[in-house]
């Protein structure tokens, strides 16, 4: 009983101190008008995003990924059942809702000698480079591929996992503008993205070097296409900065940049200023 009384005294004393503090302070009007209980307002404001995410927001209204989309990703990553029923929560007839129509004459499934279904692919209809008589035209083995994410923005484990996944799925991986890292070389086809910083294809002054570019192509036979990135996708019209504190020895070697200064990705290309010069 003495412990219970002690707890009451300590709690009451604490609340009294909070009450005195609230009516004396002049920074927050809510606390002066509603001492002690006014703190609940700031608590609810702080946990508001979590309350809205789990209690208020419906499965389809959050951005950039809805709860339904996140749930599908979570279940898929854990190899759990990611199927969902055809319910009214899916706006299947709205513009932009993806629909896969059945083919009247689908591609035949292929089986091995034991009757096991082999991996099916959905190759790109276009043979890229054929119309310009390129030496090595390329037909992607999948119409669904991995878009550009640089090593540095992603860690080595993430890049390696994506590359191994692309190899297993028979699709290509876009390197992003950060250059070709060792973690891009685990077996999948690559699309080498070259941005305004020319990382992996630049000279000591940061300009595009045809010799360095050719050497990189020779050293990386899995590179099937080159993609030229005209500007920063997340911030068009602006450049990018990688602080020198984040430039490791490995990143410095891959990108061809020094470690004693910030790495600047210009807001535009130095090698061309219009479409004609680009071509």
UniProtKB/TrEMBL annotation:
GO molecular function, one term: glutamate synthase activity
Residue ranges constituting the Glutamate synthase domain according to the UniProt record: 135-278
Chain segments annotated as transmembrane: 6-24
Keyword Transmembrane: yes
Organism: marine metagenome
Keywords per UniProt: Membrane, Transmembrane, Transmembrane helix
GO biological process, one term: glutamate biosynthetic process
CDD domains the record matches: GltS_FMN
Stored InterPro entries: Aldolase_TIM, Glu_synthdom
Keyword S-adenosyl-L-methionine among UniProt keywords: no
Listed name of the protein: Glutamate synthase domain-containing protein
Similarity annotation: Belongs to the glutamate synthase family.
């Amino acid at each position: 009983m003495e412990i219970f009384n002690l707890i009451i005294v300590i709690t009451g004393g604490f609340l009294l101190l909070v009450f005195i503090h609230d009516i004396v302070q002049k920074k927050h009007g809510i606390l002066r008008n509603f001492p002690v209980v006014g703190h609940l307002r700031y608590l609810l404001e702080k946990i508001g995003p979590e309350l809205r995410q789990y209690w208020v927001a419906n499965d389809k209204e959050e951005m950039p990924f809805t709860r339904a989309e996140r749930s599908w990703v979570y279940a898929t990553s854990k190899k759990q059942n990611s199927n969902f029923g055809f319910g009214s929560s899916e706006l299947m007839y709205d513009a932009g809702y993806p629909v896969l129509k059945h083919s009247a004459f689908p591609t035949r499934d292929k089986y091995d000698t034991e009757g096991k279904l082999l991996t099916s692919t959905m190759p790109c209809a276009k043979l890229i480079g054929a119309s310009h008589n390129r030496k090595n035209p390329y037909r992607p083995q999948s119409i669904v591929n991995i878009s550009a994410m640089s090593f540095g923005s992603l860690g080595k484990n993430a890049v390696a996992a994506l590359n191994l996944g692309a190899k297993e799925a028979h699709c290509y991986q876009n390197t992003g503008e950060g250059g070709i890292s060792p973690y891009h070389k685990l077996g999948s086809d690559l699309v080498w993205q070259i941005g305004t910083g020319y990382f992996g294809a630049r000279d000591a002054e940061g300009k595009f070097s045809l010799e360095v570019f050719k050497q990189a192509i020779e050293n990386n036979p899995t590179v099937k296409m080159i993609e030229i990135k005209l500007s920063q996708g997340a911030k068009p019209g602006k450049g990018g900065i990688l602080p020198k504190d984040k430039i490791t020895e490995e990143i410095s070697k891959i990108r061809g940049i020094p470690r004693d200064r910030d790495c600047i990705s210009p807001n535009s290309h130095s090698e061309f200023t219009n479409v004609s010069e680009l071509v």
